[in-house]
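Ligand: fe (ii) ion. Inputs:
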Amino acid sequence: MKHDLQVSILKELMRQLDDGKNVDAGIQFRNPTSAYTCKDLAAREWDSFFQNHPQLIGLTGDLPKPGSYFTIDDFGTPVLATRDRDGEFHAFLNACRHRGARVAEGRGDAKRFHCPFHAWTYSARGDLVAIPQEDQFGPIDKSCHGLIELPAEESNGLLWVHPQPDGRLDLKTQLGPLLDEMSTLGFQDLVYVGESVIRKDLNWKLANDTFGETYHFQKLHKNTLGQIFYGDNLAYEEIGRNHRFVFAAKAIDLLRELPEDEWTLRGHANLLYYLFPNIQFNVGRGSVALIKIYPDPDSPGRSLTRVGHYFSEEDIAAAASANAEEMTVTGENVYDGEVRENAILSLEAITEVFDSTIEQEDYVMGEHQQMAAENGLLDHVLFGRNEPALHHYHNTFREALGMPPLEKLVA
Ligand code: FES
Ligand SMILES: [Fe+2]
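Predicted complex:
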């Protein structure tokens, strides 16, 4: 992110803190609770936003080297993501061309993918390369029976896939100026260290809503995130259907003693991007958390959240040397193998605090909200002037489905 922009965001946060004022959208809205319970709406969301919309599936670090792969089933199209021997990223329908079994599960490294059913074999480029007992099976034109390829693009460290083979990825339109902004954040150099999976009884938009304001920080999170962040402040910008959401860490006060040309956002404020429709992307000092939120297509009251954690090599090296000191490891090559694995494990332990705050604080509220919405007596909820991300998020998804905007609250 350009330094000028970092400084203007930090100044806005300091101004709010000094004035004791939060961001002010100047407007309040009513949101119908049917947004969280309506089966017809849920079906339209699934079709428009998950079956027919580009999906951010991970970062470059999910496919760290030629031969790396991982699979995803969260948006209805089973996907096998690979990196071929030339380093190119591909995405395929994870379905064997013989009779449709999955050719890979989980994540790892593989030169070839052997379908577990009858061992048809595919390359990382999706080519069908071997059929056992081919003489008994009968002739097949292998060149026409590779895995079905999906549109895939690796851009600034982000891995995008379209779930339809004839779908179009147009990141320039989708992300607008965020495309350039993200190119400055070094996502392509981060290392995947692990993922938490949270399945809870709350609509996927309620899960998104928990990332939409800082009003709750010093209440719900007073003993967790509230120790690190002030809350009740927000530098907020809508960028098309997406937004940038920055709030002050208590460490912002350290900058007050420094000249502006030494100010940096990361480490002094938290940077959160919302990427339409289902991504919350939390950018820390040397790490990021990629939060992907999916509806349960059979139940508007359930959702799945994946929180993927990625760290810089510097953070891993620092954790490795801290561990090495503790273990009094000596010798020259302390950073390879087991020491690196232990460093990654210790970083994973740090991420548990973040994940458990989401699961045990935010999403507990979300489950209560879901219960109230399903009961039906509470027909709407309220979004305040200090909650502009919620206004934007709900109005955006409504507009995308051809629904009228939220109703303004007239006091
Ligand atoms: S279904 Fe894959 S080899 Fe038969
Ligand atoms: Fe929260």
